[in-house]
Amino acid sequence: MNKKSSLDTNSQHSIDIKSYVYKILAYWKLFTVTIIIGFIIANFMNGFKEKKYSLDTTLSVKEENNPLFSTGTNIAFNWGGESNAIGTVKVILGSRTHNEKVVDSLQFYVSYLIDGKYRLEDVYGKTPFKVIVQKNKPQLYGKLIQVDAIAKDRVRLTTTFNESNINKLITYTDSESIKKSGNIYSEYVSTDLEYSGEFDTNESINIPFLNIYLNTKRDLVPGESYYIRFDSFDGTVASYKNIRVSDVGDGASILKLQLEGSNTNRIVDYLNASVAVLEKDKMQQKVAYAKNTKKYIDELFLKEADSLKKIETALRDFKEQNNTYDLSEEGTLIFDKITEYDRQRIDLENNIQNLDSLRNYVVNRKKYTSSIPVPAITEMPDGKISSQITNLIQKSVQRELFSEVAKDNHPEMIALDNEIKRIKQVLLENISTLRSKFSTALQKVDVLLNESESSLKVLPFIQQNLIKFQRNFEISEANYNYLKQKSYEAGTTIQATVSDIKVIDTAKDLNSGPIYPIPTFNYLVAFMLSVVLPLFYIIVVEVLDNKIHSVEEIENNYSIPVLGVVGRNNWKNNLAVFEKPKSTVAESFRALRSNIQFLFKSTSADSKSKTLILTSSVSGEGKTMISINMASVFALGGKKTVLVGMDLRKPKIFNDFELSNELGVVNYLINQNSIEEIIHKTQVPNLDLILAGPIPPNPSELLLSENTDRLIKRLQEEYDYVIIDTPPVGLVSDALELFKYSDAIIYVIRQNYSEKGMMKMIDDKYGNKEVNNVSYVLNDFSVSNKYGYGYGYGYGYGYGYGNYSSGYHENDKPKNIFSKLLSLIVPKK
Q1: CB neighbours of residue 502 within 10 Å
Q2: Per the domain annotation, does 17 fall within a domain?
Q3: Which residues pair with 169 in a beta bridge?
Q4: Do 467 and 456 contact (CB within 8 A), yes or no?
C-alpha cells in the first residue's frame, strides 16, 4: 500500500472532533435565531395556556361503633356496614351519584366569567355576588349573561338571543329528580335579538328565561362587569369525576383527595363539599338500619302495650270476681315451671321465625342494601350468621357502587358476583343447620310444657284459671319490657352514632403555583428543541453535503498537489490584481506566481516562454477569473504576457476588458484573420489579449487543427508567458487536447461549490502519468466559514454535475428562488 492509500484509510477511520465543533459553531446565527424563537414561543405558551392548579384534602376512614352497646345490638344496627371501608369510599367518591349531590349542593352548573387576555376566565369566588338558582324554574341555557354594576346595589343584565328566536332553557331540579329524569329542557321564543334589564341585588329576578337571586357579598363598584352562564348539570358532573383518590401510606385508613382545575376557589369548595356529602351519606347509611329497627320495634311495642293492658284488666277483673288474689303453694310451683318453658318456647319460636325470614330474604332478593333482613330485635345465637350477613350486605353495597362505573362483564364485577354467590350458599347452609337444631329443641320444650300443663288438672278450677291469666300476663309483660329496652337501645344508638369519616386536612389554597404550564420546564424544552432541531438540520446538511470545503480535503482525497489558494473576489470585475493590487486576492495571485515556477517544464536554453493552461471541472468554478489575474500578475511583473481565450463554447474574458467578442481565436483558426489582427492591447501593462471570437459550430475540430499548433508556437516565440483559458474538462474534452502545449496546468476548484467526485478523472490521469505538471488551486477560499480549519473527511467520488454545466449543455437553468431562500439558512461560506 502506497502513502496515499494509507492516508485515505486513516482519514476514513479517524474522527476530528475539532472540525465538527467548527462546523457547528459556524451555524451560530441559526442557533441564535432558533433559541430566540423558541423562548418567544415558550413565553407565549406560558401566557396562553390556561393555568391549572392541584389541591387536596386528607381524611380518615375508620368504622366507629359505640362500645356501650351489646354485640347483638351492634349486629342488628350495623348490617350493611363494610369492613373494607376504604375501597367502598374510593368508589363512592368517583361515582356519578356522589358527584351529582356535590354539584347540586354547590350549584356548580353556574359559571362566573370575565374577559381575559386570551379567553374567558373563571372567576368563581372572586365576584362580589353569588347566583342562587331558583330550582324548578327555567334558566337560559348556554348563553352568556353580562352582569354590569351600575350602583352599589343595582345591576344591569344583558344577553343576546338566537337569530331564530328559539332559545333553549334548562331547569335544575333537585338531585334526586335529576337522577331519575335527567336535565329538563324547554324553549323560550324571544321577540328581540337582545335583552337588557336593571335589577336590585338581593332580590328575586323572575323573567321568562331567568329565575335567580343575586346575593352580594360586598357593595358593587359601578363599572364592574362579569358574565354568568348556565351549563348542563350532567356535563358539569362529568367534568368533576376526575377527582383522584389515593391511599396515604401502606395499610393506613387515610385517603387523599386531589382535584385539578383552573380556579382554586372551585377546587377548595368542591373538595370540602365532597367530603361533607360523603360524611352525611355515611352517617345516614349508618343509622338507617337503626331507624328502621326502632320504627319496627315501636310498632310492636304499641301493640304489645295494648295487649298487656287488656290482659292486665282481665286478670284484675277475674281476681275481683272470684275473690282470689294469690296462687296456692302447689300452684306457684306449677306456674313457675310453665312460665320457664313458655319463655324457652318463645325464644325458640322467635329464632326459628327469624331464620325463616332471613332465609327468604337471602333467597328471594338480588340486592341486600335497602331494608333490614329480619326484625332485628333479638340477638342471633350464632355469630357466624351475623358476620356472614354483614359480609353479604357489604359485598352487595360494593357491587351497587361499582355498577355505576363498570359493566357486568367487568372482572371485578364478576369476582363480586361469585363472592356474593359463595356467601349466600354458606349462609343458607348455616341457617338450615341452626334451624334444625332449634326445631329439635322446640320439640323437647313442647313435651315438657305439655307435662306441666297436665299437672294443672289436680288444682281447683279457680286456681287453674288464675294460672292461665297470670301466664298470659307474664308473657305479655316480658315482651313489653323487652321491646321497651330495645326501643331505648335503638334510640340511643341513633343519637350516639359517630361518623366513620374524619377530616384531617381540609382543602385550602396556600398560594402554591400552577402545576401547568410550568414556565421553567417550557423554557427548558424550548431551549432543548432550539438546539436539537438545528443540530438535526446540520446533520442532514452534512450527510447530503458533497462539496469541497478545505485544502485538507483535497490533499487527503487526491494525488494532485495543491499549488495554493485564492481568496474571495469581491471586486466589481475580475481585474482584481490590476485594479486592487493591495487586496488579499492580488496577494494570493502573487503567491501563485512564486509557487508555479516549480511546475514549469525544463525547456531549452534558447527558449524562455512558459505556457500555462487553466481548466476546471465545470462552469462557475472561477477558471476565467484565475486566468485573467494570473496573466495580470505575470504582466505586472515585467513579463510580456498574452492571455488566450480558448474556451470557444462559452467565452467570457471580453466582458472584463470591455471588448467585443467579434474577433478572436476562431477567426484565425478558420483563416479569416491573421494573428496580428486578433491580438488586443489591454490596459494592463505588458498584457495582450486574444479573445475566443464568435462561437463556432465545431469547436473541438477547430482546436485539433494545424492552425492551433501554429498559433501556440507563434505566441510562445513572441511572449514570455502564454496563459490559455480552456473549457472545463468535466463537461467537454477540448481542454485535454490543449494539455500538450502546456508547461504547467492549473486545475481550478471552487470552495463550497465543486463536488468531491468531479476531480477523479484528472486525478486518475495524473496517477497514470497521462498528465504531468498539474496542480490544484482552491478558489473563492475563506477561512471565516465552517470548514476554514477543517481536515480531510474521506468523501467518495461522483460525477453528477447537475446545474454546473451552465452554458455548455442545452439544459441550463438560472438559480431559482428556492436556492436563494436556502442561502439565507445555510451559513455564509
Answers
A1: 16
A2: yes
A3: 140, 186
A4: yes
